[in-house]
Every structure is written in structure tokens, then in C-alpha cells.
Amino acid sequence: MRSLLIFGLILSNFSVIDAFKIGAILREKEDAHIAAAIQYAVEWLNQRAIYGQVDFVIDYIDVLDHYEAVLKACSLFEKDHVVALIGSSHPMLNAQLERLAAQMDIPLLTAVDDLGLNANTDVRIEFFPKAQLFESIVDLFRHWRWNRITIVYEENERIRRIEPLLEDDAYSSIRFRLVKIQNKDYMRAARDVKELEECSFYQRKDCSEFSRILLDLNPEHAYNFLLAGLQMGLIELKHWFLLTSMELSTMDMELFRYNHARYISPYPVDPIFLKEKAHVFNFSHFKHHIAENWNTRTGFSRNLKLTEAIFTFDSIYAFASVFSDVVHSQSQLVHDIPQTTCRKPGREARKYQYGRTLIDAVLNNKVVGISGDLHRVGHPMKSNFSMRIHLLGYSGRLDDIGFWEPKTDVHVNMTGDSRAQLQKNVQVSDELKPHFRVTTIMERPYVMLKKNHFELDANSKFEGFCIDLLAELSKDLGFTYSVHLVKDGAYGNDVHGNGSWDGMIGEILRGEAEMAVAPLTVNFKRAEVVDFTKPFLSLGISILFKVPDDQQPDLFSFLNPLSWQIWMAILTAIAGVTVGMFVVARITPYEWNLNFSCCTAHQPHPGATFNADSEPVQLSNNYSFWNTLWYVTSTMLKGGCDFGPRAVSTRLLGGTWWVFTLVIISAYTANLAAVLTVSRPFIPIKNLDDLANQSTIAYGTIKGGSTMQFFQESRIGSHVRMWEYMKDRDVFVKDNTQGVLRGIRENYAYLMESTSLEYEVQQNCNLTQIGGVLGSKGYGIALQKKSEWTDRISRQILLYAKRGIIEMKKTKWWRSKGASCQGGGAVKQQRFSLSFHNVAGLFIILIAGLLFGLITVIIELLIRSRQMAKKDKKPIVNEIRDELKFALNLNKPTEHRSRQKTLKAAETTNGQTVNGK
Ligand SMILES: *[C@@H]1O[C@H](CO)[C@@H](O)[C@H](O)[C@H]1NC(C)=O
Ligand SMILES: *[C@@H]1O[C@H](CO)[C@@H](O)[C@H](O)[C@H]1NC(C)=O
Ligand SMILES: *[C@@H]1O[C@H](CO)[C@@H](O)[C@H](O)[C@H]1NC(C)=O
Ligand SMILES: *[C@@H]1O[C@H](CO)[C@@H](O)[C@H](O)[C@H]1NC(C)=O
Ligand SMILES: *[C@@H]1O[C@H](CO)[C@@H](O)[C@H](O)[C@H]1NC(C)=O
Ligand SMILES: *[C@@H]1O[C@H](CO)[C@@H](O)[C@H](O)[C@H]1NC(C)=O
């Protein structure tokens, strides 16, 4: 015994001794592909001769005679000393063999989808990527956002696999409908599918013109179903079939490929392996070998499952490579002929002594096979296994359109497939349209959350002007989108000045979004790093300010219609006219009369007729100082007076005064009504310059926004002054909402963009816009630099502007949505009092009248004095002096001869009288 051992050791060092045998219990016809794969793999391994000598034994059984299968398997273990068993393509048979293998720790390598029919032992090593297949299918649903899927299946076990889909909340937005093929009645199933597609009236909302069907069938059944579908008219442009069998490339699709329906299937072959091993492994040769064997054994059955052959090949490849590793690394005598026996009545099973080691090693293998990563330990979604995605599309050609991998889901590019369709201008379904991730920012009324946004999905929970615009563009230009809010809540600023942008611009630059649809101002710096479309809204900077609280008219508001300068001027005018009138009336000789009444002034005084020569009649002058004052005020206030001017000079002056009072009173009356109705007090600023020139009202804008940048960079004096004021103070706000709030609560003027301001003023009547709009800029849609969509979107925006769609949307969101200040808002910003220069002309007329009166009175005096001088034979100069002395009350009236009048001398009106009252 001891010597034998030594002999064996020596032998192992000298010859290719790590030979092993694998066995399989298969069915003659249905497992022909497995048998062919085993044969091919073993030959391939032996050809390469680096994995030792591999042998295989295949025993065939009749259809599903499980007892015979067990007997034959036992014989494989006991007589042929196989160290591993390869599973068949029948899950139930595998389960049977698995129980047997578990008694002896013989690894069972399976390559088929067990549909849940397994014995749950640890000797079974599954090479079929069940979990990954399921996950890739679900990820495809998600990637294309399918929301109505018809599942067609035949075996009841299949439904178990999709149970998680039907029950999980994560898929609640998808409507699944199940169609089971019963009794191989494919026509009926196809008809059921067709009926389900017809949108009944009440379901119209989630009803798409395009229909998506998941064919959870084996290749043969799938073929039969498609054939029935062809007769039912399902095979046409609007149908997408997703096949779970992974056999799209081997199926005979000749009948179905020309009708523009689309067929998609995952495909587990790793192209990197085929490329790297091209010199040793000929994949088309392998396929050919399998198909040839299959066809001769089965007589061209359509149920060939190439993937099972691939996984069988991979399982043997992995096992062989592990086996030789174990032999070399552990120097164990793994190559000892195993002495396993099955359990029989009265005898325990004898385990294969290295079975455990091998099973662990196979599970942990690092081998990459035709299907890629063959590592089978740990969570399936953490493995490096990936799937290619095959598409048989519009062009009728089978294309590899991308891949799926557990970590990053689906990466497919269907532009190649859709191009042909787009060129023919055929309606395109959403999957084929380019998809954009759109970043945006919450700002009323551009982007807002709907009231019931909790129950809505990411795209439909927003509403607003920008969201409408985006939907419109997507409909007309043919793209799909998913909206998200910018993470840092900023618009986009080169914060450190070194090209590390934040906000929406940053997301576009970092590739986290393709598009920014938001109230994003186009400016020079941003346009250097991203592309902007033509602006969809034009705007400028304006001032938002709170309307001061309502106030009752104060006690003296009747003074408000005229400015205080005018009131002063009127008082001065009254004084001036009074003095002027008084002087003129005293000097002019024609104001000395017999009577007091202006009504009878033209008639001789009754007394004059009686007191003939005896007493000189005393003539009097109506215009004493106080009388003049009374005359001036009462004519001004339309009080009237019982005397009126008689001389040309006084009439001239009086007339001018009447004109003056007429206009002033009318202006006052007209203005009074307006001033009393406008009870709101005035706002102390009228425009940006006013704001710059004062310091009582604080003002500011959004930090980092384009308005701030505007002031920062402007070279205009008042803007520089404003920036000096703003930059060191706490006047900046985070967003418009806060700015508006601050404007309401504090004495704060908020500088904001005119369109947003317009909206805020509509929403809150307590706010108003001050001054006009400064500057001119626009909101544009930002895209990645050199995007081919910039031009297309620009053109569409111009078209919308032309058709008035933009204006319509603006009206919709600015005016009708909960706007409370319809049309109002504009408040008089200033008390409307007449200022001095409005009426300066009147005062000029008045002064002119005064001067004319004085000139006239001088002429009157001269005429009179000449007459008197002639009569009295006195020099005219003396006469004038006497007249003036008398008029100015320097002499006693009795001394003044010319004012004494006798009736005899009364051809003209003259006389002597005491002065005044
Ligand atoms: C692969 O096998 C096919 C036949 O199955 C053969 O035509 C082809 O030349 C082979 N390719 C290489 C690289 O050997
Ligand atoms: C997947 O591959 C990467 C490198 O390609 C490797 O670092 C990682 O460990 C692999 N993961 C698994 C589970 O094999
Ligand atoms: C998609 O494929 C087309 C050609 O079929 C190619 O021009 C385009 O660049 C691809 N797109 C991506 C994102 O890979
Ligand atoms: C820019 O500067 C900031 C801070 O100085 C730094 O964090 C960032 O990495 C810089 N970015 C680039 C692109 O250099
Ligand atoms: C503001 O002040 C500047 C100089 O202090 C002056 O030139 C300008 O006219 C003022 N503007 C207004 C509207 O008062
Ligand atoms: C406007 O101001 C008045 C008085 O301050 C207040 O009662 C009213 O609620 C305000 N309106 C709004 C919409 O804020």
C-alpha cells in the first residue's frame, strides 16, 4: 500500500495524470444540444491540453423515466468514477439527479433555467444567470419607461418568476396583462393579445398606440406564437416583442423580419472573450457543431437553445480549469480515482472525498467563459456578468444595440435603428426618441410643484411656464425627457473663477443633465461654456416695492391739489394786487365819484342835484386799502362785490386778476377730486436713480444671480454706486421668494427680473413695480456645447413666438393662475399736485396786468393834470405834484381844489371830497 502510494506520487510527477471524467444523463433528442456541447467542450479542452485529460460519459434515458435515470447515474459514479455531473435541459430530471449527487458530494453543473424546480442542495452549481436575466428584462422596461405590457406565457412555472413584478410597489406604475397559451392554441392567444390592445374608452389615458409584449416562452413556442401573430396582424410597426429566451439570434425569423415589428432579446455571449480567444476558440464553429448535432438528432426542431449549450460549455470549461488549479496548487491527490457509491438498502452512500473542495472551488472560480464572468458566489447583482442586447428592428437586420450590466443597468443606442424610420417620416415610438435629462429650478411661475405632487411621478409633478414649453418642444421635436431639480438650487455661476461652475450650468458641464429649461439668463460667461437657444422670453431688471399702507385723507388734504409754492405765490399775488389796485385806484382821477355803489355809478348821485352851488360835493374813492383787500379776495373767491373799477387802469388790473383767479380756481377744483380719491400715499422713489441717490430704503437682489452680475459689471455711475452700496451689506437673498417676502416685511426694494416681477405684482396687490425696465436680456434653454439640438430648438422657439404660443402660455401662467390683482397694481407713485411751473404763466400775466395798470394810470394822471393845469394856469409839474400828494393822502382834501366840484363846472365828472370813508 505504502509503495503504491509512492509509486503514484512518482507517476503524478511524470505523466499527465490529472485526468478526470464527467458524466451526464441525458435524453436522446431534447438534450442533443447539451450532448453536443459536452462533446465540443471536452474535445476543445483536450486539444489545448493545459487542463489535463478530460473524459466524458453520457448515458441516455427514455423520456422522463426518473428511476432509470437514478440507476444510470449510480452506475456513472460507481463504475465510471465520474467527478462531476452535467445537468440536462429538463429541470425536473436535474432535481432528481441533484438529490442523488448530494449524497456523494458530486458537483452537479446545470445550464438551464430551473423554473424553481430544484432540490435546494449545495452540490448544484447553476451556470444559467437566472437573476440577471430577470433583472435585465426589468431594467429594459424601466429604461424605455414601458407602462403597459402584455405578458404571454405557457408553462405555469413561468408565472412564478414574474410574480415579484406583479406584486412589487416599484412596478405599480406598469400595467401588466397576462395571456396564457392554453392547449397550444396560439391563435387564440394572439387574438387575446389583440383584443387587449384595443383601448376601451375609459382607459384612453394610459393607452398607447404602441404595444409592448413580453414573450416568456421557449424558442419553439415563441415561434408558434409569432406565426399566429402574423396571421392576426400583430407583426407590424407598432409592436415590440421582448423575448426572454435569449435565442433571437438562433431563431428562424425569416417570416417576421420584414414587417417592421421590433424584437428584442438579451444575449449572454461576452464579445471580449470571443475576441481574446479568437485564436483558440471559433464561436461560429461551435454554433455550427451544436446546430448540426441538434438538427440530425431532432430532425430540425425549432426548440434549439444555444444559450444552454453555451452555459454547458462554460460549466465544463470552468470545472476543468478549477480542477487543474486544485491539482497544482494543493498537491492533493485529487486525481485519485474516486470511490463513490450510491446509497442502497442496507448501505450508506460513500462520499467523494474531494467533492466539497471542488464545489467550493468551482463556485469561486475566476474563469471568464463564452458568457463572461463565471463566478457564481455572492449576490448575482454584484457580479461582473453582463448581457448584450439584440434587436431585430425596422431594418430587418439583427443588431447588437448595447448591453446591460448589473451595476449601471441598460446602455442601448437605438439611433441606428430609428434613423431609417425617421427618414421615412414614419411615426416613432418613445423608445426611439432621444432622451434628455432636464435640470430645472423651482421658480414661480416657471416651475412649480402641483398641489397633489406627492402622488405623482417625477415628470408630472411639476407645472408651469417652462414645463409647458418643454412638453410642447418634446411633442413637436420628438424627444423624451425626465425633469429633475438642480441639486444645489443655484442657477449657474463660475464661483471660484476657475471653471468649476455650480447650479444648472454645472450639471450640464458635468454631464448630469443634457438640458436646462428654466428661467436661466443668457449671458456672455455662460454662453462660453454651454450652448443657448434663442431666448424664449425677453426681460430686464426692475424694482419691486411694497405699496405703503392705505391712509385716510388727512385734515389738510384740501391743500394738496396745489403745491406749497403755489399757495405762497397766491398769497403774494393777493398782497401784490391789493397794493397795486389801491395805489392805482388812488392815483387815477376817474375813481373819485359821488357814489358808493357800483350799480349806480353811471348815474349822477341824487344828492348832487340838490346841493347846488352852496356846498361843494365831496367826491369819494371806493378803493380804500381795506376795501381793496376785500375786493381782491372776494372776486377771487367768486364772492362778488358791490363796487367795481371804473377807470381804464383799474379795470385792466381787475380784469387780469379775474383771469388769474378763474384759472387757479378751476385748476384747484379739478385737482381736488383726484387728490382726494387717490388716498394711497406716494412712494418716495420713481426709478433706479432715485434709489441710488437715497439711503433710507435698502435694496438688493439674488446672490450670484445675473442681476447681481449686472450691477457688478456695469460701468454706469449710478449702478456703480448701487453696487458699492450692496456689496458689503446683508442685502442679498437666496431666491425670489425670499426677496419678495423681504420686500413685503421690510423697507426693502428688491431688484428682480421684470417677468418674475410682473407675476409677483399680479399675485399680490400690495406690491408694485417702480420705474421702467433696465437693460434687455433673455431666458434661453441651455444645452451642452455643440449640441445638434440647439439649432432645432431655437427654430422651434422662434416658430412659437411667431404663432403666439409663447404669449398664450405667458398669459396662462401670469394672469389666470390665481392672480388676484387683475389689471390693478399700477399705483400712482406720486401725489398729483400742481407745481409752480405749471401755473407760472398766470403769474406772468398778472404781473403784466399790474404793470399795464400802472402805465395806464400814469397816462390818466398826465391827461388830467394837463387839463387842470390849463384851467388853473399853473405849471403842469405842480399840478402833478398836487394830484399825487392828494392821492397819497399827503394833503387835506379841502386843500385840493381840483377835487372840489361844483355842479356848474360839472361837464366832466370831478369834484372835491374828503378822502375815504
Ligand atoms: C471558424 O469555423 C468556420 C466553420 O464553422 C470556418 O468557416 C471559419 O473559417 C473558422 N474560423 C477560423 C478563424 O478558424
Ligand atoms: C469585476 O471586475 C472588476 C475589474 O474588472 C474587479 O475589480 C471586480 O472585483 C470584479 N467583481 C467581481 C464580483 O468579480
Ligand atoms: C449611436 O449610434 C449611432 C450610429 O448608429 C452613432 O452615430 C451615435 O454616436 C451613437 N450614440 C451614442 C450615444 O453612442
Ligand atoms: C476651483 O477652485 C476651487 C476652490 O479654490 C476648487 O475646489 C476647485 O477644485 C477648482 N476647480 C478647478 C476646475 O480647478
Ligand atoms: C443723484 O445724485 C447725482 C449726484 O449726487 C446727481 O447727479 C443726480 O442728478 C441725482 N439724481 C437724481 C434723480 O436725483
Ligand atoms: C396687503 O396689505 C394689507 C394691509 O397691510 C393686508 O391686510 C393684506 O393682507 C395684504 N395683502 C396681501 C395679499 O398680502
Architecture per CATH nomenclature, i.e. the level-2 architecture of the largest domain: 3-Layer(aba) Sandwich
Main sheet properties:
8 strands, mixed
- The percent range for strand residues is 15-25%
Q: What would the average pLDDT be, to the nearest integer?
A: 82
Could you name the CATH homologous superfamily of the largest domain?
Response regulator
CATH topology of the largest domain: Rossmann fold
The molecules bound to the chains, other than polymers, are:
2-acetamido-2-deoxy-beta-D-glucopyranose
Number of strands: 30
SSE class: alpha/beta
Quick structural gist:
This protein is an alpha/beta fold. It has 29 helices and 30 strands. The protein is 43% helix and 15% strand.
Give a written overview of the molecule.
The protein contains 29 helices and 30 strands. The longest helix has 37 residues. It has 917 residues and is of the alpha/beta class. 43% of the residues lie in helices and 15% in strands. Strands 7-6-8-9-10-13-14-15 form an eight-stranded mixed β-sheet, sandwiched between helices. A five-stranded parallel β-sheet has the order 2-1-3-4-5, sandwiched between helices. The chain has a five-stranded mixed β-sheet with strand order 19-16-20-29-21. Helix 11 packs across helix 12. It has five domains: 202 residues, Response regulator (Rossmann fold); 157 residues, Rossmann fold (3-Layer(aba) Sandwich), CATH 3.40.50.2300; 151 residues, Periplasmic binding protein-like II (D-Maltodextrin-Binding Protein, domain 2, 3-Layer(aba) Sandwich); 106 residues, D-Maltodextrin-Binding Protein, domain 2, CATH 3.40.190; 186 residues, no CATH class. The N terminus and C terminus are likely disordered. The structure holds 2-acetamido-2-deoxy-beta-D-glucopyranose (NAG) (6 copies). The site of one 2-acetamido-2-deoxy-beta-D-glucopyranose (NAG) has 3 residues, from helix 21. The site of one 2-acetamido-2-deoxy-beta-D-glucopyranose has 3 residues, from loops.
